[in-house]
Each structure stands twice: as structure tokens, then as C-alpha cells.
Specification:
This protein is of the alpha/beta class and about 550 residues long. The chain is built from 11 helices and 20 strands. Strands 1, 2, 8, 9, 10, 11 and 20 form a 7-stranded mixed sheet that branches.
């Protein structure tokens, strides 16, 4: 048996040109990237290579939440695990001394194989503000389907590299609707606490919040919500709030206070490479292979033959490899796993997958809108990108919603409160393989987000009415008020207890498992990654207890 050779940290960098392209596009918005000193060393991850023809006991596809949980727990149970990840390792600073791109301007590190950035708030004063960047295997993918852009993290750490870090456990009374076949007692007694502890979820110092300059926008948003009769709740996060206090005090390099989030945080965030994956590395049994995209999985003697493309940082294929794995865990995220599975079924690689594979996809009811406050309610120039407060209107049965009070940090006073709402949207999409294009389509239509808009209006209309504020119509293009064709929270496509058994096993193919957000049927009522992590913890515990050693 050939095992992957560990070669140490991968040194993919980006040329100086990549940093300079796009500079000045937002000049005048205070957009000078501040160089805050050398980044702190990231945990030493076991970055390695995988040879064509290798045989491995366990292959995990994707290094996000599901993949990280599976790798750690399997390794702790004595298994040798190889993770293949489409994106980069994100462990090597560029020529500016930083790992991740700045925001204003952004460079190629920001965007997955695109020559333009692609943000949900892509206009200002009606003018497009996306900027040109070098084509590079950047950290944020905006994947376009017919009626929706789905945002995803790419790299060792998956979504944890780009997300807002909001770490929310759903209210227990809503759990039976989220995952009907899962026992709430085991989730709230064991797996949610385990996930929160492993992810290093922490809470803001509420006294500090009341005077922190960087949260003026949140306090203003809370005050205007209260005038309309809404209460707000503090949102836990994996960003280290003690670090943020030091940012505000000016004693450490800035990250959340330097507009960093969507394209990665150079400091402060406890992403998976610092938590689960660092612990997995410490077992000595896990190897992570970046810049490898899995394309095909089919039965073969000894398990499953997994075909993958090794790519360069320009996205071009360097080598195509075939590896045999005894067991394969699909952890490529809701979109990645769904695309892989519907492709395997349609192309005959895994023809016995159930017909339900690809269905049950939802956007967690994501919708965005901004309000323009009165001149008496400035939101502050210096804003933390880490959301601290949400307006909880989930008890409103006519249109449940949780509206985050998020930052709009463009370096000037805007008097804007931006809101990202999570709503109860009953619509579900289906992925299907398109024989003509050889690609996977998603049938989601933008109009399906109307229930989300309606629910968000139940919060934002009364605030506008009582505060005398208005909706901004210049941030999403075409005079639109609603950012209704994007998703930060893709969920479903291989639903638990429908396409898999109640623990993520693809039962028609022993040794194949799904362990990511594709298992969750479209909604978590709050930000999803704590639930993705807790469910993965639950499922892998059962799989380790009953499956290992049986094949
Ligand atoms: P994920 O973390 O996406 O990992 C999948 C990995 O698989 C990625 O690294 C891919 O590059 C890789 N991959 C895909 N296809 C392949 C392939 N064919 N071969 C090899 N590798 C592949 O999946 N959630 C919260 O709870 N709180 C937040 O504040 C929050 N904010 C967000 C903000 C943004 C901008 C985004 C994009 C997401 C946000 N989310 C948030 C959602 C959260 O990150 C997401 O639910 C989880 O990352 C899903 O975890 P998975 O393990 O399913």
C-alpha cells in the first residue's frame, strides 16, 4: 500500500501584480489596505501529496466543517485519514506579508478563479463596485446558478475561512423542524455543547460593547429596532472578542476592524485550521492534500476508485490522479457534495444512488437589505465586520425571521444599517445533471425568495416607519432594494434519512458516507455551521462505533 508523502507546508503564493490589480477602484472610500505587521503563525497542518495509483484507507473530500470533524474523530479512533481539498492551504503569506487579501482593494486571493470580485452588495450609489483581480485560486467562490449566486469558502478550512463566524445554536423548540429524524436530547445534551467547545465559540463583553466605537452601528440598529418594538439578542462568534478589544485599543494588527471577513481574516478568527484541523494534525494520522478537485467516485476492488485533478493556482490541471480508498466521506459542502453525487448517478459511476439525491436544497431563507438612517443616527466610520446583534422575530408565525445587524464598512460615514435576514422559506431546489453541458444545474428561481422578503419586511418596514428611515435601492443593482439572489448558507441536496440513512451512510454503497451541510434539508433557523458541526459529531460517533473494522 502506498501512503501519501508528507512534504511540509505548500508554498503557493501570488505574484506582486495580483496585489496591485484593482488598486484604486474604490479610491475615495478610504480604501487603503493597512499593513498591520506580520501575521501570527497558523497551526502547522499536515499538508501532503497524493500519488497517482495510491491506496488509502479513508479519503475525505473537502476540508470544511464536516470534513474536519470526520478527520479528527476517525484519526482519534486510530484510523489513517487523507483529506483532499479543492482550494489552497492558506498557510503562506503573500508578498505583502499577509495570508489573505485586503478588501479595498482586493486582489486575486479574494476570489475563486475569477477576474472580478463578486460581492452580494455589488453596487454603491448605483455604480458597480466589483473590481478586477488576477485569476487565482482565491478563498471565496461565488457559484452562479440560474436564479442564485451561492457563496462558498475554498481552501483548508472551507467556509470557516470566509464566514462571519456567527456561531448560533438553534432554539430547541425549532429543532424538530430542522432535522426531524434526529433526537434533540442527544444534540442538545452532547453534540451542540461539543461543537461549541471545539469551535471555541465565545461571547462579546456586553459592557465593552456599549462603548466600543466599532459597534456604534449595532447600537444604532438596536435603538431603532427597539423603537419599533423589536428586541435584539447578542450573537456568539468564533472570532476572538478579546483580540478585537485589543484591535479597538490599537495594540494589535487589525482584522475585523480593517474590513476583513469575506476574503478571510488575517488575525483574530478561530477558523477550522486553528481548531479541529489543528487537533487532527496533532494525532499524526491525518494528511491534507490541497489543490485537488475530486471528479469521480466509482466502486473498485478494495473499495472505491476516486479520480481527481491536481490544479495549479491558475486553475489549470497539472495532473489527473486515481486513488483507491476503502472508505470515502463526502464533505464537499452542500453544493459540492450534491454536484458530485448527482454527477456520479447520472454518468453511471454510482448508478444505485437514490433518486432523491440532489433534492431538498434551500438557502436558509437568506435575504439582504439596507436602511438609510436619519442624519441624527450615524453608524460610524470604524466598524467591526463581526456581527454582534440580531433582531429575533422568529416567534412571528406569519413570517419568522432573524435579522442580523451587520456592518457596512466602506471607510466613510454612510448612516446605513445593513441587515442579513435568515427566514423560513419553504421553497426547495433540486440539482440535476445536464447531459448537454456536462454540468450540474440548480432549478432555484429568484422569485422563490419572495417569502423571505415578506418575512424581512415584517421587521424592517416597521423600523422604517417608526424611525423615519428608508430602504437603500443602490446597493444591489437595477434599483433593487432586496439582495434576493444570493446564498451564504447553502443547505441540503443529500438529505439525512432520505438520500442517506439516519447517520449519513449511502446505503447502496457500503463505505460511502455524507457528512456535511448537504444533509440538512434547507433551513437551520439560524446561522448553520454549529449545526453542521454538531450533526457531523453525532454521525461520526455512530459510524466509528459500528462501521470501522467491518470492511
Ligand atoms: P464547507 O465548509 O463549504 O467545506 C467544503 C469544502 O469542500 C470546501 O473547502 C471546498 O473547497 C471543498 N470542495 C468542494 N468541492 C470539492 C471537490 N470536488 N473536491 C475537493 N474539494 C471540494 O462545507 N455560517 C454560520 O454559521 N455563521 C456565519 O457567520 C456564516 N457566515 C457565512 C458567510 C459567508 C460569506 C459564507 C460563504 C458562508 C457563511 N456561513 C456561515 C455558512 C457556513 O460557512 C457553511 O454552512 C459551512 O461552511 C458548511 O460546512 P460544510 O462542511 O458543509
Amino acid at each position: 500500500m502506498r501512503v501519501p508523502a508528507v512534504i511540509g507546508a505548500s508554498g503557493q503564493g501570488i505574484g506582486r501584480r495580483g496585489f496591485l490589480v484593482g488598486a484604486g477602484v474604490l479610491a475615495g472610500l478610504g480604501g487603503v489596505m493597512r499593513l498591520g505587521g506580520a501575521p501570527r503563525a497558523r497551526a502547522a497542518l499536515p499538508i501532503g501529496q497524493l500519488e497517482d495509483g495510491a491506496t488509502v484507507p479513508i479519503l475525505v473530500i473537502g476540508a470544511g466543517y464536516g470534513g474536519a470533524v470526520a478527520a479528527l474523530r476517525l484519526a482519534q479512533a486510530g484510523q489513517t485519514v487523507t483529506i483532499v481539498e479543492q482550494g489552497m492551504a492558506w498557510n503562506t503569506p503573500g508578498s505583502d506579508g499577509k495570508i489573505f487579501s485586503g478588501t479595498l482593494p482586493a486582489d486575486g486571493r479574494s476570489s475563486w478563479l475569477s477576474t472580478m470580485t463578486d460581492q452580494p452588495t455589488d453596487h454603491l450609489l448605483g455604480i458597480p463596485i466589483d473590481m478586477p483581480v488576477d485569476r487565482f485560486t482565491g478563498v471565496l467562490a461565488a457559484e452562479h446558478f440560474g436564479g442564485i449566486r451561492v457563496y462558498q469558502g475554498r481552501g483548508v478550512g472551507g467556509g470557516s475561512l470566509v464566514n462571519g463566524g456567527m456561531a448560533v445554536t438553534p432554539r430547541r423548540e425549532f429543532f424538530p423542524d430542522i432535522l426531524p429524524s434526529v433526537d434533540p436530547a442527544e444534540m442538545y445534551g452532547t453534540y451542540y455543547p461539543r461543537a461549541n467547545s471545539m469551535l471555541r465559540v465565545n461571547h462579546i463583553d456586553e459592557q465593552w460593547f456599549e462603548s466600543a466605537q466599532c459597534y456604534q452601528y449595532a447600537r444604532v440598529g438596536r435603538e431603532l429596532a427597539a423603537r419599533a418594538g423589536f428586541s435584539t439578542t447578542f450573537v456568539p462568534n468564533v472570532y476572538d472578542f478579546d483580540y478585537m478589544k485589543q484591535e479597538q485599543a490599537g495594540t494589535v494588527p487589525l482584522s475585523a476592524l480593517n474590513r476583513e471577513s469575506l476574503y478571510g481574516n488575517n488575525f483574530g478568527k478561530q477558523s477550522l485550521d486553528k481548531t479541529y484541523l489543528a487537533e487532527a494534525a496533532a494525532t499524526g494520522r491525518v494528511t491534507v492534500v490541497p489543490l485537488h478537485t475530486v471528479a469521480r467516485v466509482a466502486p473498485a476492488p478494495g473499495g472505491y476508485r476516486v479520480q481527481m485533478d491536481q490544479i495549479g493556482t491558475d486553475g489549470n490541471v497539472i495532473a489527473t490522479k486515481n486513488v483507491v480508498a476503502q472508505r470515502v466521506f463526502f464533505a464537499a459542502g452542500s453544493v459540492g457534495t450534491s454536484k458530485l453525487l448527482v454527477t456520479q448517478k447520472a454518468t453511471g459511476a454510482l448508478p444505485d444512488l437514490p433518486d432523491s439525491v440532489g433534492s431538498g436544497w434551500g438557502n436558509n431563507g437568506n435575504v439582504m437589505a439596507a436602511r438609510q438612517n436619519q442624519l441624527t443616527d450615524p453608524t460610524g466610520v470604524n466598524q467591526s465586520t463581526i456581527t454582534a446583534l440580531g433582531i429575533d422575530n422568529w416567534d412571528d408565525t406569519a413570517g419568522p425571521a432573524f435579522a442580523e445587524i451587520t456592518s457596512f464598512p466602506i471607510g466613510i460615514e454612510t448612516f446605513v444599517n445593513l441587515h442579513l435576514a435568515i427566514t423560513k422559506n419553504p421553497n426547495r431546489g433540486t440539482f440535476s445533471f445536464n447531459q448537454a453541458t456536462g454540468r450540474v444545474d440548480l432549478d432555484w428561481q429568484t422569485a422563490w425568495n419572495q417569502p423571505s422578503i415578506d418575512a424581512a419586511k415584517r421587521i424592517l418596514d416597521p423600523i422604517n416607519a417608526s424611525a423615519g428611515t428608508t430602504y437603500r435601492n443602490d446597493l444591489f443593482g437595477d434599483g433593487k432594494i432586496w439582495g434576493d439572489e444570493f446564498a451564504y448558507h447553502p443547505l441540503g441536496g443529500c438529505v439525512l434519512n432520505e438520500s442517506t440513512d439516519n447517520y449519513g451512510r449511502l446505503t447502496s454503497y457500503p463505505g460511502l458516507y455524507v457528512i456535511d451541510s448537504s444533509l440538512i434539508p434547507g433551513s437551520t433557523t439560524v446561522n448553520p455551521f454549529v449545526t453542521v458541526t454538531a450533526l457531523a459529531e453525532r454521525n461520526i460517533a455512530a459510524i466509528i462505533a459500528s462501521d470501522m473494522g467491518n470492511r
